[in-house]
Each structure stands twice: as structure tokens, then as C-alpha cells.
């Protein structure tokens, strides 16, 4: 492993631990009064710093689609970098939904809980549905935008996995439109099983909102499949646009 890779791993973990302890201390000292208000700011700082340590730059297209009230922003999940990218672009009044197992990670889990993340229980469908009901109520009360991964886990080969119904069920409960968030080139820079990120450039594209006003319980499955089809076709478009202008990861320095 090259010196850059060693520094990336050591530097990242040192920052994660110091950030987690600092964020937790701030939340505890203020008795949680400012945790949700500070959460987007702290997460943007965390995500952007982690990307800098990894040597990853990014551009955001279509950010205007997140404006104007609560939204649901599902993102394709193919890389460890996705967590940093989502955090880096989260606007005010937004929160991320993560798997409940994250709370058992040292330092990170405690911080995630204190900062008001939505915790999804993937192994228990009844708890997951209850979480969605509470998330929908919280969205309406706080006018939140929620980021979540509809695939539920990272793809192992870069292909879009089948979507779970959580994002669309949340739209059904809250009435919020869905704004697809596409992440391109993260898999190539840090795919599954890799310890070190290859420096490079990632494109994040937000598509126009998909209104959910006509959504019903009976059409949740159909809308979930239609949403996945949008990701498959639009990610192919993004990759075709990337080919002539971005270097291959192996060539990046």
C-alpha cells in the first residue's frame, strides 16, 4: 500500500473519531437542543472533509429540484463514498435514513443517533413500517427532506439492485414528491472490498421531482419498479457522458 493510502486510512479514522466525539459533546452539552438544527451543517463539514482526504472532487447538477419544501431523495448505493457525498450536499432541513445496525459502530453509531438520523430496521418489516409512519409525521412537522438508499445495501458489481418499497411508502405517508439523486463514478473510485479510494471526480445529478399525489397503497409496487427503471436509464446516460471527459480510475494520480 502506498504512503497516500496509509495516510488516507489513518487520517480518515482520526477525523471520524475526533468529529464524532466533538459532535457528541456539543449535543450532550446542549442537551440535544441544537442537534437537529446543527445536524446538516456538521454533516456537510464531515462529508466534505472525508472527500478531501480521499482526493475526491464532485459536482452537483439540478440542486434546484430540492428547493421548496419537503422532498424524498433516494440515491443509488454503490460505494462507501456515497455516505460522504450525500452528507456533503445535504441542504438545510434535511436528514438521512440509515440502517439501524449503524448505531452499533464505535463512535459513529452514537453520533448518528444524537444527530437525529432516521433509523431503518431492515430485518423487521413491522418496525420498518412503523419507522416510515413516524418519519412521515416528522417530515410534515419539520418540513424535512429525507435522503435514503432504496436498494438497501451496496451493489457488488455497479448494477442497480432491486429497489425496496421504503422510499415510495414514505412518499405515500408524507405526500412528498420524490427527487431522484444519481451518483456516478463513485463505484469506480471505491468499490466494495477496497480499503483505499482512487482520487477522481464524481457527478451528482438531481432529477425533476416525481409527484406522488396520485399514489395509493395498490400502486406502491408499480411506482417502485418505475422509479428503479429511471435510475437504470439515467445512470447509463450519465456514464455515457462521463466516458469522453473523465480519466479511468487506474490513470488517476
Topology:
Blueprint: H1 3-29, H2 35-54, E1 56-61, E2 72-74, H3 81-89, E3 94-99, H4 108-114, E4 118-120, H5 125-142, E5 145-148, H6 166-174, E6 181-184, H7 186-189, E7 200-206, H8 220-242
Helix pairs in contact: 1-2, 1-4, 2-3, 5-6, 6-8
CATH architecture classification name: 3-Layer(aba) Sandwich
Give the overall silhouette. globular
Number of H- or I-type helical stretches: 8
Q: Helicity range of the residues?
A: 40-55%
What is the strand arrangement across the widest sheet?
2-5-3-4
SSE string: HHEEHEHEHEHEHEH
Q: Work out the radius of gyration.
A: 18 Å
Report on the structure:
By secondary structure, the protein is α/β, with parallel strands linked by helices. It has one domain (3-247): Glycerol-3-phosphate (1)-acyltransferase, CATH 3.40.1130. The protein contains eight helices and seven strands; from the N terminus they run ααββαβαβαβαβαβα. α2 (35-54) crosses α3 and α6 (166-174) crosses α8 (220-242).
Task: Please tag this protein with its features.
8 helices; alpha/beta; Glycerol-3-phosphate (1)-acyltransferase; 7 strands; single chain; 4-stranded parallel β-sheet; 253 residues
Amino acid at each position: 500500500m502506498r504512503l497516500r493510502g496509509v495516510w488516507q486510512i489513518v487520517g480518515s479514522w482520526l477525523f471520524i473519531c475526533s468529529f464524532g466525539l466533538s459532535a457528541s459533546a456539543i449535543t450532550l452539552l446542549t442537551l440535544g437542543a441544537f442537534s437537529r438544527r446543527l445536524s446538516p451543517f456538521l454533516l456537510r463539514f464531515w462529508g466534505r472533509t472525508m472527500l478531501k482526504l480521499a482526493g475526491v472532487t464532485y459536482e452537483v447538477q439540478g440542486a434546484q429540484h430540492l428547493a421548496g419544501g419537503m422532498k424524498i431523495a433516494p440515491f443509488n448505493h454503490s460505494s462507501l463514498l456515497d455516505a460522504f457525498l450525500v452528507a456533503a450536499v445535504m441542504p438545510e432541513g434535511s436528514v438521512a435514513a440509515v440502517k439501524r445496525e449503524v448505531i452499533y459502530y464505535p463512535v459513529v453509531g452514537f453520533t448518528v443517533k444524537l444527530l437525529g438520523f432516521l433509523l431503518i430496521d431492515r430485518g423487521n418489516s413491522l418496525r420498518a413500517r412503523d419507522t416510515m409512519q413516524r418519519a412521515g409525521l416528522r417530515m410534515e412537522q419539520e418540513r424535512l427532506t429525507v435522503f435514503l438508499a432504496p436498494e438497501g445495501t451496496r451493489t457488488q458489481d455497479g448494477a442497480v439492485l432491486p429497489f425496496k418499497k421504503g422510499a415510495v411508502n414514505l412518499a405515500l405517508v408524507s405526500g412528498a414528491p420524490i427527487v431522484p439523486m444519481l451518483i456516478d463514478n463513485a463505484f469506480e473510485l471505491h468499490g466494495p472490498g477496497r480499503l483505499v479510494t482512487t482520487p477522481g471526480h464524481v457527478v451528482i445529478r438531481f432529477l425533476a421531482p416525481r409527484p406522488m399525489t396520485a399514489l395509493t397503497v395498490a400502486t406502491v409496487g408499480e411506482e417502485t419498479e418505475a422509479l428503479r427503471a429511471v435510475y437504470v436509464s439515467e445512470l447509463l446516460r450519465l456514464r455515457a457522458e462521463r466516458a469522453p471527459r473523465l480519466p479511468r480510475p487506474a490513470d488517476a494520480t
